[in-house]
Amino acid sequence: MFLGGFKSDMDGTKALYLEEWAARKGRAFLRFDYSGHGQSEGAFADGAISDWLDDARAMLEAQTSGPQILVGSSMGGWIALLLARAIPDKVAGMVTVAAAPDFTEDSMWARFSPDQKDALLREGQISLPSEYDDPYVITRRLIEDGRSNLVLRTPLSFSFPLHLLQGTEDRDVDMSVALRLLAHLDADDVRLTLVKNADHRFSDPTCLTLFDLAVDELCSPDIVL
Q1: Residue 190 falls within a domain, yes or no?
Q2: How far apart are CA 45 and CA 198, in angstroms?
């Protein structure tokens, strides 16, 4: 099951690559758009982490049977961790790509200027430039809701294997986040692969090959229940 990133959609390079991989391997695969993303209804600015977590949980519970391999990209890594914490019996393993747990607090709020914080609290939203699309509308609700879903402040104990993938030249999610997550996770099988010069997209042929290998390993008969 693929979990996309912030303002991303299910037609992105990694989602489609994983769908092709699943077809080659004869495996079931699920991709979807959160509310306010891609083909789903709703306005992006109306959503928050809890909403997108609810969307992911609804899809996981309604559209799959048995434990699944969760593959989370950027914000999707955060959603995957939240899902695994809430319903661990539905998770057999996890692969993250540039996982961005707690980004609303650590990468947004912590870096906002005093003027930006004041405007957000006073007006309810601000706009941030994006390299990928139109400016991001960041709402007060997104920041405050994010605080109720933080995962790096409390224990994260998992019994399934996890493989974290991270580019060293990622300007959206610094590799220090991956190192922090690695240190924070309480699990017997956690691996971190750092890819020199890879950026946040993590979509060149070398990165996609590593992505393929990570998912394929967790889908081996010895891992999946």
Answers
A1: yes
A2: 29
